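Trying the structure run again after the queue cleared.
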Amino acid sequence: MLLGTPHAIHLRYRTRGPVGEDACHPFKILSEEQDGIDLYMMHNGTIEAMPSSKDASDTMQFASRLREKLLTWDNPLDIIRPHVLERMEKTIGDNRLVFFASGGITAIVNAKTGRFEHPEEG
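Done. Tokens:
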């Protein structure tokens, strides 16, 4: 059903934080109703810079901090600019992040370290 439609699939392997619906990806960073644009994030790996917590996974904490930061920016979609993504790579190490926003906008942090299947290309 998704052939020809860009998509990402994430299966969570719990490493930190709680198990439950709140810990499932994708995380909504911004919402059209509140912020004028939908922005979601999925993450693969462990963000060592985030402290261990029984209440929130490393990804949940990163998403929350990212939301707080983006709300101070004039244009939250600057998150997908190459220099911002490169800086994020330094924060998350060899982890991968996928961002997707309203209008089909996508960006991948550390895309070169990931494995991507392209069945429509064989």
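The mean pLDDT is 81. Worth checking whether this holds up in the mutant runs.
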